[in-house]
Amino acid sequence: MPLRFPRPLRPGDRIGVTSPSAGVAGAAAARIDFCVGWLRERGYDVVVGECMDGTGLTSAPAAARAAELTRMLADPDVACVVPPWGGETAIDLVDLLDWDTLAAAEPTWLVGFSDLSTVLLPITTSLGWATVHGDNLADTPYAVPDGLLHWLDLVSGPGPFVQRDSGVVTDWWRFEEDPLATTWKHVGTGAWELHGGGSLDTSARLVGGCIETIGHLAGTPYGDVRAWAEALDEPTIVYVEACEDHAVDICRFLHGMRLAGWFDRAAAVLVGSTRAPDHPDLTQRQAVLDALGRLDLPIVWDLEIGHVPPHLPLVNGALARVVVDGDRHEITQTLA
Predict the structure, then answer these.
(1) What is the pLDDT of residues 79-130, one digit of tens each?
(2) Residues 6+ positions from 29 with CB-CB distance below 8 Å
(3) CATH topology of domain 164-334
(4) How far apart are CA 123 and CA 145, in angstroms?
């Protein structure tokens, strides 16, 4: 199916906020109120949905979450949808979305990461809509380090959008510490690294997300990356990042994705920095190599694309050029 890019977001446009996974409660509620206000101060019309309850594992029953997300994505007056954050079980609503209604609608930007990868992926592979793997709402007010772009920048036009290795590693402020934080907590330094050394310059279509969530979609109609890539008849750049699972579990997930054809059209694999635990006999990097090393694909380590901030937003479906050559660490995305 052809790729479809939502229209560029402009100040004055409506942004919908809903929780397809975890909701909002306690100190977190103050953070989300601040983030909604932050977007409104920048000229956006922000509407908050009903599925926002944070007292349980999810914000509402699966059917209600699916209905609200469908309604927002299909509403021509809503230009973008962003969740407060991820969660645990967004997979329970994937087959409850009204896919026929969405297929008939004009595409709408959907932005987020972590458990939202569970929804971003099938929106792209099943509908052909471009989606943004980037900051959730709770992270949106954080200032962007040099070299990176804000997700609002990427959804504002066709590009090309150039981002470079930021060289920094950061962390979140706990909501109890500062619910109004707009600057990342500096932790240290870091850099992209091409496995085995040398240089890389490749272009292809981006697709990927959080391993612990998209791994469960591999082999299902909602995560058929092989069929998506074959339909496009284009190579892919697959990006992955581990949140918190043990290296052995990450290894299993990646093997499953490989067996499901995720990397059949891949020109390269991008791997996000992670703080997920190693096994005494298997590191997180070794987990990736155990599953993917036999494919002889270029692998770039430690991009800012996941649960170790800051965040380098990536657009599923974008045409991307990745260059890692000496001191030049760069990704350029074009929304066409």
Answers:
(1) 999 999 999 999 999 999 999 999 999 999 999 999 999 999 999 999 999 9
(2) 54
(3) Glucose Oxidase; domain 1 (3.50.30)
(4) 29
Residues comprising the chain, all counted: 336
User: What token pair was written down for 146?
Assistant: 């040099």
Tokens of residue 24, six digits = 């909002």
- The CA distance from 110 to 133, in Å, is 9
Q: What burial letters (b/e) apply to 215-228, b meaning 16+ CB within 10 Å? A: bbbbbeebbbbbeb
Report the distance separating Cα 152 and Cα 159, nearest Å.
12
Tell me the one-letter amino acid at 144: V
**How far is the C-alpha of 60 from the C-alpha of 256, rounded, in Å?**
30
Burial of 273 (0-12, 13-18, 19+ CB in 10 A): buried
Could you give phi then psi for residue 138, rounded to 5 degrees?
A: -60, -25
Write out the two tokens for 208.
């990927």
The residues spanned by each domain of the chain are 14-157, 164-334
What pLDDT does 2 receive? 83
User: For residues 61 and 63, what is the distance between their CA atoms, to the nearest angstrom?
Assistant: 6
For domain 14-157, give the CATH superfamily: Murein tetrapeptidase LD-carboxypeptidase, N-terminal domain (3.40.50.10740)
Kindly report the pTM of this predicted structure: 0.97
Decide whether 14-157 matches 164-334 in CATH topology.
no
56-76 per-position pLDDT tens digit = 999 999 999 999 999 999 999
| Regions of the chain where pLDDT drops below 70 | 1
* pLDDT for 111: 98
83 phi, psi to nearest 5 deg: -90, 165
